[in-house]
Request: fold
Amino acid sequence: MGSLWLCSVELASLLPQLSVVQVVSVEVSDAAVAVRARTRSGEPAGCTGCGWLSEWCHSRYERRLVDVTLAGRPLRIDLSVRRLYCENTTCPKATFAEQVPGLTVRYQRRTPRLQSLVEDVGVVLAGRGGSRMLRILGIKLPRVALLSQLMRVPLPPLVTPQVLGVDDFALYGGTYGTLLVDATIRLPLTLWEGRDAEQLGRWLREHPGIDVVCRDGSLTYRQGITVGAPEAVQVSDRFHLWQGLSRRVQDIASAHCGCLPAALPPVGEDDRPLVEETTQNAAAGSRAGRHAQSLFEAVQALTRTGRSHSSVARELGLDRRTVRKYARARTWQEVMRRPPRKPSTLDPYLEYLRQRWDEGQHSAKILHEELQTKGYLGHYQRVRMAVAPLRRGLPIDEPRERPPSPRETARWITTHPHRRGPHINERLPRLLDHCPELKLTHDLVRRFATMLGEHDAAPLPAWLDELANSGLVPLAGLAAALREDQHAVTQGITTPYNSGVNEGRITDVKLQKRIMAGRASVSLLRHRVVLIAHLRRRFADRPTAPPR
Reply:
């Protein structure tokens, strides 16, 4: 009885058209809820062809509708509707079937409420995920049918934006796509496969009226915007400018990797050189050391003849980055740099192990038992591995600090001084004092950061001249690239426009691709990316109910 009363209450909320529809019976079972209803006679209905109101009944027929679940049970509505004569003599329709607003749609077996739910679930979760969610909600719909319903949802009307964002994203493999975003309202407009200038120019010609276009430093997009919207102001994005400069800094640090150990704090001269020499001799006798030494000699012999890294890589069957690493190294030991050992629970007992080893106790099992009496809770194997270097005449493997990598050095240089930690503030000045090239790079980077922070592009021409005359090949190449796009770079420094919204939307595109396991076509991906952004905006704009 309670279930029947609950179903009646929910049914009254689900059928607001009770003035037009008369409920005949309600059957409640454990499997489903079946409602028999009929439209009221004498109520006028609009013709589906001309809109003329008519009450002249021709006949009746039954429509079977499916609605959202009622009290956790599937709801089926058997609705008897009228077929009416159209009293408009000029209408091509002789008869028409009446439609109940909010309950029926032509050629549709789902109610508008259920159809809206199916479309929203399809937009958010796509095929298999959406089908599983609908099954949880008591609605059985195959994934293919759900995707079909999703593709039938019309895209929102495209309004030409004043500020357009253009960026590329990895579609699959080596194929890229182009995403266009309205930078003002932060909503995606469209996307397509490829990143050629002709397609972008054609889209811009079809949508005139764009004032500002934010992009990266891509020559392809620059040409497409120039052809399609020559009056638009092109803005080179600040993030991409800084990213391009950071990559050049990393290239310079890689070229001067021999200077990077200068960032380490000074060590004592009593035992450290001996330790390093012993370790290097041991590495030279190992299989990995012999392999690194042979590769180093082969790469150095070929690169001294003036051959490019790509040709050397093809001949030796190596990756180009591997060839570059061996070509830039001064000795083969640099490519054998060992990573720092992670802290271990055995570290406080290393001095005791060294002392007992010198006293003649070489049994790892007995040493482990002794350490257990001192509070060590680790495994025997860790003690056995710790004393293994002592058996070969090497020093015990203590934690040690390694020089910064080129990537870490670039991060140190590009980080704002106030945001550097004490660790960096201690080591970076020591490195810059040792390497004049990195010091010059650091000064140029900080000057460009000042221009970005103060939105002042007046020093840009002089700064580009210093880049070109710095004697550093990566910076000289960057200067040449920025000169070709100097107007857009100036706009990127001085104006508030940027491609930040593009990067956020590209992150969303990657998320939707992963949800669909990378098997979605471009048209389906476009539908979901555009519709899900509007769906989020629609629910975000809804007022929340006040707390009780």
The chain has 21 helices and twelve strands. Residues 453 and 506 are 26 Å apart (CA to CA). The first helix runs from residue 2 to 14. The chain has a mean pLDDT of 83.
